[in-house]
Amino acid sequence: MFRPLELFIGLRYTRSRRRSHFISFIALTSMLGITVGVWALITVLSVMNGFERELRNRILTVASHVTISVRQGWLQDWPELAQVVSTEPQVTSAAPFIIGQGLLTRGATVTGVLVRGVLLEHEAKVSSIMQHLQSGNWESLASDRWGMVLGSALALKLGVTVGDKVTLIAPKGRITPAGLLPRLKRFTVTGIFGMNMYEYDSTLALIHMDDAAALLEAGSGVSGIRLRLEDIYHAPLVSAKLRQFLSGDLRVSDWTREHRNFFRALKIERRVMFIILLLIVAVAAFNIVSTLIMVVADKRSEVAILRTLGLPPLSVTAIFVVQGMIIGLVGTVLGSALGVLTAVNIETLVPWIESLFGIEFFPASVYVINDFPGELRWLDVIHIATASFGISLVATLYPAWRAAQTQPVEALRYE
């Protein structure tokens, strides 16, 4: 615990003196370095949090929170199963689906497609994809009307608009006396949706579930049931509970497992970015070391006098620790304040900079997300501030220890 004497002397040494302007300049540089490092860390991590949130929300617009499917064949009696799983408190709605792969053709253009058969009245409860229709309407996606809603990139690839015809080739063929013939069906494009997610916009096609069942020979069965939860972060817990009382033929998965590699990559990237930007703070901390070493050399005779007057080595150490801690504390506080202000206003600050200089950081024609979403997490701020102050504190230990080793006789011999 510091006594008032150590604190007073440490604060006094921090102020500029006539013969130590250069030392004060280095101390100011160290303070600014810590400020910039903490500022950059909070801002960058907040932007990465915002990107992760936007990508997660867009993925969950199409993907289900929890999916129940069969390992082989088709899931029969899905209404009874949906009623059973809906008793789980976290489950708010359930929707059946039929999924299959195929080829879409129009003229000479052929492309692979992921076909999903849905019931609109159920799909609207588990997905918000219906809110992203760019043209056409969902009402035309009715049973036996053979309508299809395509992703925007897929429609562009095929060169089709609402009202055009496309041919879907199913993977399962029909055996005839002439041999194995592919199952073909002409569909009318009744709508085009855009999710701003190339993965879905370029591969997904929606049709009515009855049409999918007829095309894929599913009968009265479905591929599985999609569940929507009240809290998406309870998905692993809910899926684990469902596995306990559902039969072994059923497979239960959730969005954290289906997109595990993607979110793991984001997490690793975020961690690496934290370490890289923390090096800025570490470089500034090295300046604290050099500052204190020069201060110790400059105050060598004064330290010797204090030692002669009876000040113990531990108190001498505390004096210079106080000086280094002040540099680290001021830099950390300033950087945290600037970082929080920038993170909170990043969504309005970046467009202002773009309009001011006439540039566009993320063109909408190239990037999935063309703005700078920000999400400030106070736990990140606490971790960054703690790490910054801790590095600054560690940087003071060696110079402070060297100051405590000052021998009064040697220091005052030529004074």
Report on this model:
There is one protein chain. The protein is of the alpha+beta class. The chain folds into two domains: 4-57 and 262-412, no CATH class; 64-255, no CATH class. Helices cover 54% and strands 20% of the residues. Strands 2-3-8-5-7-6 form a six-stranded mixed barrel, surrounded by four helices. Helix 1 (4-14) packs across helix 12 and helix 12 (313-344) packs antiparallel against helix 14 (378-404). It is elongated and about 105 Å long. The chain starts with a helix and ends with a helix. The mean pLDDT is 80.
Strand elements, count: 10
Biggest β-sheet: strands ordered side by side in the sheet: 2-3-8-5-7-6
Characterize the overall form: elongated
N- to C-terminal separation? Answer: 33 Å
Tell me the strand percentage band. 15-25%
Order of helices and strands: HHEHEEHEEHEEHEHEHEHHHHHHH
Share of helical residues: 40-55%
Structural class: alpha+beta
User: Mean pLDDT across all residues, rounded?
Assistant: 80
Major sheet summary line: 6 strands, mixed, barrel
Helix tally equals 15
The value of Rg in angstroms is: 33 Å
Summarize the entry for a quick read.
This protein has 415 residues and is of the alpha+beta class.
Blueprint of the fold:
Layout: H1 4-14, H2 21-62, E1 66-70, H3 78-85, E2 91-106, E3 109-118, H4 120-126, E4 133-136, E5 147-151, H5 152-158, E6 165-176, E7 179-193, H6 198-201, E8 204-208, H7 209-216, E9 224-229, H8 235-245, E10 250-254, H9 255-258, H10 260-298, H11 300-308, H12 313-344, H13 346-357, H14 378-404, H15 408-412
Parallel strand pairs: 3-8, 5-7
Antiparallel strand pairs: 1-9, 1-10, 2-3, 2-6, 2-9, 4-7, 5-8, 6-7
